[in-house]
């Protein structure tokens, strides 16, 4: 860093040394990189649309320089707040009057198009008024084009100019620009045009910017140097030619973000929202964005690739055409070439069956057929146009070509052969995915259960990713290992590297004979510019290892539909209930049907009338349940016990009318439900419909609040989310100090007990691995203020944060300080000692000074509303450790801030 500043100082004074006085002081001469800086207050004088790109603050002060480096009387200041800019250049003499600027910019199409307008006034009259209009369009996140019209520029003749400009940042440290202005009045030193070509280079993480522009009509160049220190930028721009030289010096104060085009545009496209949503990576323009179609087909997939203007799909189309000249047969060919080796032979020996057809015209494969007397039982698989299993069909979906036979029944079954399947979940952990992450964690056990019920020898792995691949788990048959791994999933990243994650999934350790299933879960596009992989290349990688891709995506951003279909997978809307998606995927792997048919009977004999009770059992969220239903008649006759269909939640049973039954529903993970079924007025042969809805088991959090002597106390318990610090619930204890409430598992909580004249205490409750229905006990204690003073008790402030080696409070410390502030305002006679402690790393005296400054920082924050005479700050350094300094955990415990009540 010292080398950086030394280089800046040398370049800075070299430029100042050659600077000469300018003829006039204009806003556009305070920057040498137009449209390369997205937060420039001086844009009010040359491109007001730029004011609308973001809401950041910018204050710019500048002056021109005399040949000897002295300051001239040409000075000016410009400020941008929100999307509004103002500026002022004071009067120097009769030829250079004062200039007052005002302008604003607004987004017309969010993140893509901005318009702006500005005015300049010299003498507060209509004759002295100048106007300007401009627009900016973002062709890509790092490519801007702009057009403008007006008289607000630096020319005193009030002649209109037409302006065009463009700025492109191919690299994070390089921006290229070009601009031209036109006026029919030849106001540019006798020229009608004014052109510039140039760019800038950023070094030392763009803290040092070197810029260059060449103006051919004016026969001079503009060079500039800028150095950025935190939110302050110091710079100079120098104009050099044979006939004219001039320079300007400026200081900029503003937000640290959006300092250069290459890093700022992408951020602005996601941070404008007030929601807790992180920045999204840029979608690859060449990847085909799939438009939702009610009925897509192989022909549509091929024609979409052929009509694409990007050549990267050409080789893939040629390969598919060579694989099969008939579009409808392409997916059969893909299945045979790339996937058949991973499926047991007993599930693929089926042959085309033309005697049984479906309404949608899917392919029906006959796996087995047995006939006893006149009843024929056919075991079938049904494939759609993409070679994928079709599940969820019912009897009315099938018909027979033999008109002398009829379908008697149809049952959806699972394969009779145990299928080895390796599954990899790709979990997008960017900031917008918190709900989906929790849904996966909640439903994965049911998913695994479904796999087992369907006869699948499963293993399940996972990749957690965001801005990078965070962690990977090769497929394992241990659900405990998977659940423990998935506890690390949290919404933390800004961007996603989805295409890289898909690539990494193809390199997992799959079993040789297992089907390979990749389940992608993301709310953004699948193919992004931050990876080295295209949709065709990823498709071929998945073919190579025999992996099928199932994509749980946002349809509005989906650009990976081609590879999903070509790998025989499916798309799912991420807003669809996740239990339904997982059940559909598990069924897609194994679904078969048993169709029973018989000859049509010429004489129909009416069956005896039988009273039937039927219905379905679902959870509160509508999920269909595998449950046990027990029916106990009121006359003490034999009870009825039956199991629901494990896929549909439906049940049906013959029942005796004229009775009343007590029904009991039991399902794993849900509360036992009881209800009555009254059949007193039911007639023989009636069908009675009775549905049951069962409630999820509820996790409870409870405990007792006592004082330091163990006596129960009535007080308030505040429960907060330990991550966001949002208050979840406030609850009052009863007369015995007891509290109890339902709580959502899968999170971390902080519990704080408080009551008048007592010191509040805080305990942690980690429910991330708690199962639904568990009972969690957390007792709390408060200490009487007089006792705390007499015994010199100390209380740790658990969420006070400093950067390493620094004493400035980080913003996330404020909630904890506010709690101490509220306590002191409520107990106005209380005085406190604020003590800070360090670990034993470093020198003793340095640690003491650091701890003293940290304690003082906490006191200074409290002093905004609390009398400083009620506080004392002491730095103990490493002298009072609470734990060993030989481990990271011990040292972390020793680095703390405490408070103690004093007289």
Summarize the structure.
This protein has 903 residues and is α+β, with helices and mostly antiparallel strands.
Structure description:
The chain is of the alpha+beta class and 903 residues long. It folds into four domains: 270 residues, Porin (Beta Barrel), CATH 2.40.160; 173 residues, 3-Layer(aba) Sandwich (Rossmann fold), CATH 3.40.50; 87 residues, Immunoglobulins (Immunoglobulin-like, Sandwich); 112 residues, 60s Ribosomal Protein L30, Chain: A, CATH 3.30.1330.60. Helix content is 19%, strand content 37%. It is built from 15 helices and 49 strands. The strands form ten sheets. It has a 14-stranded antiparallel β-barrel. A hairpin with a 4-residue loop joins strand 10 and strand 11. The chain is globular.
| Counted beta strands | 49
In DSSP terms (H or I, runs of 4 or more residues), the helix count works out at 15
Do you know the CATH architecture of the largest domain? Beta Barrel
Q: What is the residue-mean pLDDT, rounded to a whole number?
A: 82
Distance between the termini: 49 Å
Corresponding CATH superfamily of the largest domain? monomeric porin ompg
**Count of separate structural domains:** 4
CATH class of the largest domain reads Mainly Beta
Shape: globular
The largest sheet is: 14 strands, antiparallel, barrel
Uncertain segments: 1-23, 262-280
Strand content of the residues, in percent? 35-45%
CATH topology of the largest domain: Porin
């Amino acid at each position: 860093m010292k080398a950086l500043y030394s280089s800046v100082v040398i370049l800075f004074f070299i430029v100042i040394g050659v600077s000469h006085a300018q003829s006039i002081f204009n806003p556009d001469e305070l920057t040498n990189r137009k449209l390369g800086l997205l937060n420039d207050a001086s844009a009010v004088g040359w491109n007001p649309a730029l004011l609308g790109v973001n809401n950041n603050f910018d204050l710019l002060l500048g002056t021109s320089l005399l040949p000897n480096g002295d300051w001239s009387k040409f000075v000016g200041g410009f400020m941008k707040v929100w999307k509004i800019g103002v500026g002022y250049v004071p009067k120097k003499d009769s030829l250079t009057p004062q200039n007052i600027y005002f302008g604003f910019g607004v987004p017309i199409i969010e993140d893509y198009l901005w318009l702006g307008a500005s005015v300049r006034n010299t003498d507060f009259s209509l004759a002295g008024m100048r106007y300007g209009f401009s627009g900016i369009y973002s062709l890509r996140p790092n490519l801007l084009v702009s057009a403008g019209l007006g008289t607000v520029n630096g020319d005193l003749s009030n002649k209109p100019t037409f302006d065009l400009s463009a700025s492109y940042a191919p690299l994070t440290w390089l921006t290229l620009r070009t601009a031209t202005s036109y006026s029919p009045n030849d106001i540019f030193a006798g020229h009608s045009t004014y052109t510039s070509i140039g760019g800038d280079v950023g070094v030392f993480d763009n803290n040092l910017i070197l810029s260059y522009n060449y103006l051919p009509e004016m026969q001079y160049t503009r060079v500039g140097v800028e150095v950025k220190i935190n939110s302050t930028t110091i710079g100079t721009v120098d104009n050099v030619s044979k006939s004219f030289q001039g320079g300007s010096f400026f200081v900029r104060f503003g937000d640290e973000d959006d300092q250069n085009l290459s890093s700022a545009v992408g951020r602005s496209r996601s941070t404008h929202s007030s929601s807790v949503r992180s920045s999204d990576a840029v979608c690859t323009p060449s990847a085909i964005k799939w438009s939702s179609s009610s009925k897509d087909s192989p022909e549509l997939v091929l024609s979409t690739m052929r009509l694409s203007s990007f050549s990267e799909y050409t080789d893939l189309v040629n390969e598919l055409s060579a694989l099969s000249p008939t579009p409808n047969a392409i997916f059969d060919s893909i299945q045979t070439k790339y996937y058949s080796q991973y499926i047991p032979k007993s599930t693929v020996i089926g042959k085309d069956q033309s005697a049984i057809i479906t309404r949608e015209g899917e392919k029906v494969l006959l796996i087995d057929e047995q006939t006893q007397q006149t009843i024929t039982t056919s075991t079938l698989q049904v494939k759609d146009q993409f070679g994928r299993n079709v599940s969820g069909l019912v009897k009315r979906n099938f018909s027979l070509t033999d008109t002398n036979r009829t379908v008697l029944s149809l049952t959806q079954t699972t394969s009779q052969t145990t299928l080895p399947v390796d599954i990899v979940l790709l979990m997008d952990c960017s900031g917008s995915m918190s709900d989906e992450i929790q849904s996966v964690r909640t439903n994965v056990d049911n998913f695994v259960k479904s796999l087992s019920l369907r006869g699948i020898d499963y293993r399940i792995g996972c990749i957690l990713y965001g801005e990078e691949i965070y962690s990977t788990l090769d497929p394992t048959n241990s659900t405990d290992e998977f659940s423990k791994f998935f506890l690390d999933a949290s919404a933390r990243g800004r961007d996603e590297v989805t295409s890289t994650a898909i690539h990494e999934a193809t390199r997992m350790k799959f079993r040789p004979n297992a089907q390979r299933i990749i389940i992608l879960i993301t709310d953004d596009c699948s193919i992004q510019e931050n990876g080295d992989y295209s949709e065709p290349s990823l498709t071929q990688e998945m073919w190579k290892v025999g992996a099928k891709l199932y994509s749980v995506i946002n349809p509005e951003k989906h650009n990976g539909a081609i590879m999903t279909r070509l790998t025989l997978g499916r798309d799912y809307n991420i807003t669809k209930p996740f239990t339904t998606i997982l059940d559909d995927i598990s069924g897609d792997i194994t679904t078969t049907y048993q169709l029973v048919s018989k000859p049509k009977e010429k004489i129909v004999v009416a069956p005896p009338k039988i009273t039937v009770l039927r219905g379905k059992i679902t959870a509160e969220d509508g999920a269909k349940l595998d449950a046990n239903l027990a029916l106990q008649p009121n006359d003490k006759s034999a009870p009825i016990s039956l199991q629901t269909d494990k896929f549909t939640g439906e049940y049906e049973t013959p029942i005796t009318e004229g009775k009343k039954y007590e029904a009991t529903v039991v399902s794993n993970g849900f509360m036992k439900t009881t209800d009555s079924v009254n059949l007193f007025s039911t007639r023989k042969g009636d069908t009675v419909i009775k549905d049951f809805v069962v409630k999820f088991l509820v996790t409870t959090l409870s405990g007792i609040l006592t004082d330091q002597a163990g006596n129960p106390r009535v007080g308030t318990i505040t429960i907060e989310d330990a991550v966001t610090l949002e208050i979840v619930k406030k609850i009052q204890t009863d007369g015995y100090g007891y509290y109890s409430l339902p709580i959502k598992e899968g999170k971390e909580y902080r519990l704080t007990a408080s009551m008048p004249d007592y010191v509040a205490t805080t305990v942690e409750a980690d429910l991330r691995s708690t199962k639904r229905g568990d009972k969690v006990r957390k007792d709390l204690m408060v200490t009487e203020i007089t006792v705390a003073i007499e015994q010199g008790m100390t209380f740790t402030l658990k969420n006070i944060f400093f950067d390493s080696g620094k004493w400035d409070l980080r913003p996330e410390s404020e909630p904890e300080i506010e709690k101490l502030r509220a306590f002191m305002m409520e107990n106005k006679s209380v005085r406190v000692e604020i003590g800070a402690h360090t670990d034993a790393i470093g020198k003793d005296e340095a640690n003491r000074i650091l701890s003293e400054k940290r304690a003082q920082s906490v006191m200074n924050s409290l002093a905004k509303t609390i009398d400083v005479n009620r506080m004392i700050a002491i730095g103990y350094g490493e002298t009072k450790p609470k734990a060993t300094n030989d481990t990271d955990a011990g040292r972390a415990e020793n680095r703390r801030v405490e408070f103690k009540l004093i007289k």
